[in-house]
Amino acid sequence: MAISTPMLVTFCVYIFGMILIGFIAWRSTQKL
Known about the structure:
- This protein has 32 residues and is mostly helical.
- It has one helix at residues 5-29.
- This is Sodium/proline symporter (Proline permease).
- Keywords: Membrane, Transmembrane, Transmembrane helix.
- The chain crosses the membrane at residues 6-26.
């Protein structure tokens, strides 16, 4: 692979963090 493992792990964690923050923000707007 051209991408090193630490960079790939950091990228995955970053993407997961963005999705998690976006989901929490979305849930906060969907007050049921």
